[in-house]
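Module 6 notes. Inverse folding takes a fixed backbone as the condition and produces residue identities as the prediction. Think of it as a translation problem where the source language is geometry and the target language is the twenty amino acids. Below is one complete input and output pair. Work through it position by position during the lab.
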């Protein structure tokens, strides 16, 4: 099976999460994995399984990620593939579930999904320009790493289990 893990990132937090998911799925030895940022060269048609992720800016996936989703929509409705998605943002702990629902609703407008989750990301002071840094701080923003690696591992393990249920020929390691 050919697995695509594609991501849209601005400062690297989403890429690190995609890499963590790739490592977890690769350890299960269930297929050939390609990990890549979203661009015009990627095609959902070239893969059997899709895991798609993007950082969130202003309650929306970033442009390259949205373009891939919209470009792939017709093909994925005509020829559905096992597809999961993850979003990366920095809502307060109490805001994760509502923001996840907003993102999932948007994604399901375009593509059939087996599942979606929202992971919290990381904000590093050195990634922000002076004006944004000031604006962010004035409104109570904190530069912090809120990635919960165990949740990413559990999510990736769930994907592996679903694929093994669908394809009994994939033996457990």
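Target side of the pair, the amino acids:
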């Amino acid at each position: 099976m050919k697995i695509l893990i594609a991501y849209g990132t601005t400062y690297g937090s989403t890429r690190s999460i995609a890499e963590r998911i790739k490592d977890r799925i690769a350890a299960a030895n269930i297929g050939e994995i390609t990990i890549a940022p979203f661009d015009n060269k990627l095609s959902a048609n070239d893969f059997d399984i899709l895991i798609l992720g993007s950082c969130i800016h202003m309650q929306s996936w970033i442009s390259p990620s949205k373009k891939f989703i919209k470009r792939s929509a017709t093909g994925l409705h005509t020829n559905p593939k096992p597809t999961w998605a993850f979003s990366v943002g920095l809502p307060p702990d109490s805001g994760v579930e509502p923001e996840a629902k907003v993102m999932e609703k948007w994604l399901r407008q375009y593509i059939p999904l087996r599942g979606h989750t929202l992971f919290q990301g990381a904000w590093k002071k050195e990634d922000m320009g002076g004006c944004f840094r000031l604006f962010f701080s004035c409104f109570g923003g904190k530069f912090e790493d809120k990635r919960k690696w165990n949740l990413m591992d559990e999510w990736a393990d769930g994907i592996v289990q679903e694929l093994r249920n669908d394809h009994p020929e994939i033996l457990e390691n």
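Reference fact for the lab report: Residues 2-166 form a domain with the Rossmann fold fold (CATH 3.40.50.360).
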